[in-house]
Write the structure tokens for this entry.
Amino acid sequence: MMIQVTPETGRRETRSVCPYCGTGCGVILEHDDEHVFAVRGDPHHPANFGALCTKGRALAATIDKERLTSPLRRARRGVPPERVSWDTAIGEAAARFAAVIAEHGPEACAFYVSGQLSTEDYYVVNKLAKGLIGTNHIDTNSRLCMASAVSGYKASLGQDSVPGCYEDLEHADVILVAGANPAFAHPVLFRRIEAARARKPGPFLITVDPRRTATASGSDLHVALSPGTDVAFFHGIVHILLRDGRVDRRFIREHTEGFEALRDLVYDYAPRRVADLCGIPVEVLEEAAAVWGRARAATSLWCQGLNQSSHGTDKNRALINLHLVTGQIGRPGAGPFSLTGQPNAMGGREVGGMPQLLPGHREVANDAHRAEVAALWGIPALNSTPGLTAVPLFSALAEGRIKALWIACTNPVVSLPETRLVEAALVAASFVVVQEAFHPTETAAFADLLLPAASFAERDAVVTNSERRISLLRQAVQPPGEALPDWRIFRDFAHALGSALDATPVAQVAGETHAQRARRLFAFPTHRDVFDEYKTCTAGRDLDITGLDWERLEAAPRQWPYPRGASDGQARLYTDHVFATPNGRARLAAVGYQPVAEAVSAAYPWHLTTGRLRDQWHTMSRTGLNAGLFAHAPEALLSIHPRDAAGLGIGDGDLVTVESRRGAATVRARAHEEVAPGTVFLPMHFGARFSAHGAANTLTDASARDPVSNQPELKHAAVAVRKAALPWPGLVMRRLEPGLWEAARALLPELPYGALARHDSLLGEVLVLRLAFAERPHEEWARRLATLFALHDGEVVGYQDSRGVSKQALVRNDRLYGVCLLGDDSTGAWLLDLLLAGADVGAWRHHLVAPAVPAAAGLPRGRLVCQCRAVSEEDIRQSIKAGALSVAAVGVRCGAGTECGSCRPEIAALLREVSTQPA
């Protein structure tokens, strides 16, 4: 809906949905039909009621940057791509795919897509693969995110349908968060949990996580279990519930099956054994069980800590068991709720955008389901063999069984496990298409053809969030250059492919040419036509939305099911306790505990776990464009327990090498008690565009996958950690000018260690490149860096000595513009403060290249905790020491936490930390 704002500005407002996590926050875009100037939360959207996290608030600054604006084609691998027309690009893609189909068959073609695509995009590409080409090799990066939740729901409840809704967070008196850190990954939902807990009595919060995350640090009970032991922990709770008579026997008897097998299994999970397996005090297990057993209404939330596991389905089912044995499902505040990682991962599942699925929660392997979809699409039959999931798909690409791969809206070179195998597969491919809004990405370097896609603010579409709520994206501005909505690119390719197939020996089907069939199957003038056709696929299914139309969605987002004749969607499922199984009973899972796929050993003695940061998302193709989002965590840091760090001779801030059986990463260490001894944590976001050798997935294991969901065990690998032999530090900081960012990025592959970030300042963005060398760099390096980053363009203050230490500071009009430090970067934090403040440095001119920070300068501000108000950790510590003894008081004193609230869990953690320090 368009709303005229003030006549003075001539700006408009358009409602849309945030393109990040599965919370599905409504946003309002302020724009002039050409540019988006600001983004704020939509106070009328029921997912967020106006709240936004740091990433959502920063969206406006990412829309126009580093966009792919025209089709690009490489004449051959290894050369820069050149601009071509859409007709040329689509024609070449169609000819190459048609040739592969003619020579090797349809199953030599594959698609790898994304939970960030809209429902219309997903539907068209799924129909293209399965209905036109005849390949079921279409998977999505949701395989890395939600596959085990899908298989867990289906196995236990009969269907992939999230039972609850966000309102349950207000109704629950116990909330159990397992393997998730919503304080960072789903901050707006965590605000709702915080608000619920602020009421008296508020829900009791249990967090089950090996790390003391921001979520765990503020919980009533933190269960710091050993990585991968979740199944044993949940079975231990069921054992205690049975022992203490706190199960709902009537619910078990009338609405479940498999209880006897579960009862017999958990008999062996006595508290002492479980405590030993999980590495927790037995009292913690007993308390968790007692709290759950007493609960009037209990909600569980989980995410990648359970899903990204070689036994993720078992973990999901073991958690759902807790709900089923206590009847905690199908009523306000009670139910198992999987947190979705992407804005439309749910929509992708709905339309069947995975290799084993068909639209409307149907199965490829089900004869009746295939016949139904074939009839809906007007084709003779569908391929009956489920396709390859993500990791096997790339293995098939490497082996030559798949020849042509189309990648849309995802960056598998960074996100898939075992990076070197992904890169090798893309090199081996005959033809690779990358369809993307942003450029460059790590995956784009391997593309033969690059196609520009519209982003969220540039098209109309629908998406479904974690609570089954369908919302509209509305177009605010035009896509840049020649970019198009994804569904249109897929549609146009389908039309061209039909014509290309007519020129090959591929036989025609059912008396029509391939071109005629393609035009008939993809006769979609607009995205609404796509949505209307998809709706027909849901009729009579559990996710029936035949009662929805565009007008109803315009009025408000709606939850499914919403069948014809309904007046509204359904907030909760299974309220009658009839489940989507043949006999209507939920299935209790008697699955035994199994350890992580890769055990630690003498050679690889540390448990590595990976995960998200607060202000970055996925592989940073969007968040990496916003300078403000680097302030909280400007580089990949390996969190290691101080005791382990001391034993290895590693200090806080030292460079370390982390090595697994598959590869190595070099990153900076953060000695911190958020991780237990024996465990280290590395964020997942930093690929080769931002970190020379810091990608977490160089370490993870592609062979460790859940046997049911095929989701890889991205959350665990056995690693060795040692101090890196890189004693020569370097630091380049420069106010950004045209070409400097690209120059820094091009330099990264040459560096033994390099981390690239951008920061906001009063005078524009600042580039920060941290680097290190194994030995004293040649003087040529200093000259090269000075030339590359234009450090001679102004007054230069310099220093060089016989040790090889070299320092240069560029000053213009008494303000610092650039710095290059080689051999000694100890004053870097202070110099960065000067750059960011845009301060007059006349008084400090001779200190800019000195070996120490002048005493009068005070302490560096350090990393920002509150991105909205630019409040640093040191600022918050000083506020606490000055008497601000609550989160609210800190906000009054320094402003931290008073806007989006994403930083409040960290402020609370700092309050606890300072309160426990000796006076």
